[in-house]
Design goal:
This protein is α/β, with parallel strands linked by helices. It has a single domain (about 1-210), classed as P-loop containing nucleotide triphosphate hydrolases (Rossmann fold). Helices cover about 30% and strands about 20% of the residues. It has eight helices and nine strands. It has helices at about 1-5, 25-40, 90-100, 115-120, 125-135, 150-160, 240-250, 255-269, and strands at about 15-20, 40-45, 65-70, 105-110, 140-145, 165-170, 175-185, 190-200, 205-210. It has a nine-stranded mixed sheet, with helices on both faces. Helix 3 runs parallel beside helix 5. The radius of gyration is 33 Å and the shape is elongated. It comes from Tegillarca granosa (Malaysian cockle).
Length: about 270
């Protein structure tokens, strides 16, 4: 699944890459950037992290003119009142001003990362910003540092995202990277998958392996089937003779032929 998302075979208007300190998502973000630069006319990288500058060196020089970097990390809170890009900037209007009248150009936006927006602005504001931005461009890809935020904030961001890639520590030593992918197809179908993979020096994803989740039953949870009639002081079971006698008992509401004829005669009178 991650290979299809990176290469564009699976469409996703808003893609979120979640990482934490022990499992960085920036290499995966670099894979998306390299792929976008090959498939789109322009890719605008909005940098709110000082380490975002590492992405400058991952794109092939032949296609690097398609990638436009916008640094907002130098004056994140706009203390100098001179920065065009900071946490209070309307990203939709900012990107629109940078691309101008793009006509039929395919435009993508990469945000590294949206954590400063969530930390300094209300989470609904960030959700609205990302959603509004996605209406003006083909695709928006965001990096989120999950260990900086609470579950409620992350759930709101995940709700507006069409794909969520959660970086994890690999279960085996054969792979360097692992991620849990939740992808919402345009048809409404939701796909959840866990994959191990590696990256090449040119930031291509290779050796993708799906990891099947196995559930090991806990012995303490296994309970033996209990017979409710095992420890009773009286016997609930019937012998064959008792069963036969019970079947011969005529209950008041049961009609035999004689009683049925008597009832019909009374009605006719």
């Amino acid at each position: 699944m991650i290979g299809d998302l990176v290469n564009g075979r699976e469409k996703s208007s808003i893609l979120l890459v979640k990482d934490f300190a022990d499992a960085s998502g920036r290499p995966v973000l670099a894979c998306f950037l390299v792929s976008l630069a090959q498939r789109f006319d322009e890719v605008h990288v909005i940098c709110f992290d000082s380490r975002s500058r590492d992405l400058l060196h991952v794109v092939n020089p032949n296609i690097s003119p398609r990638v436009k970097f916008h640094d907002g990390s130098r004056d994140l809170l706009n203390w100098n009142k001179r920065s065009q890009l900071h946490v209070d900037t309307d990203l939709s209007k900012f990107v629109q001003s940078q691309i101008g009248c793009h006509g039929n150009k395919k435009i993508a936006v990469v945000i590294d990362s949206i954590s400063p927006l969530i930390l300094h602005r209300p989470v609904p504001y960030t959700c609205q910003t990302i959603n509004r931005l996605s209406t003006n461009v083909e695709q928006v890809i965001c990096l989120l540092h999950s260990d900086l935020h609470d579950k409620h904030s992350m759930s709101m961001i995940e709700h507006v995202s069409s794909s969520v890639l959660t970086m994890e520590i690999p279960d085996s030593g054969d792979s360097i990277f692992c991620c849990n992918t939740l992808h919402k197809k345009p048809s409404g179908k939701i796909i959840k998958i866990r994959e191990h993979f590696n990256l090449t020096n040119t930031f291509e994803i290779v050796e993708i392996k799906e990891v099947k989740s196995t559930v090991i039953p806990n012995k303490s949870d296994q309970t033996e089937q209990v017979n409710p009639a095992a420890n009773l002081t009286f016997n609930l079971s019937l012998s064959e003779k008792e069963i036969k006698d019970r079947s011969n008992v005529k209950l008041p509401y049961m009609y035999n032929e004689q009683r049925q004829e008597e009832t019909l005669l009374k009605v006719c009178r």
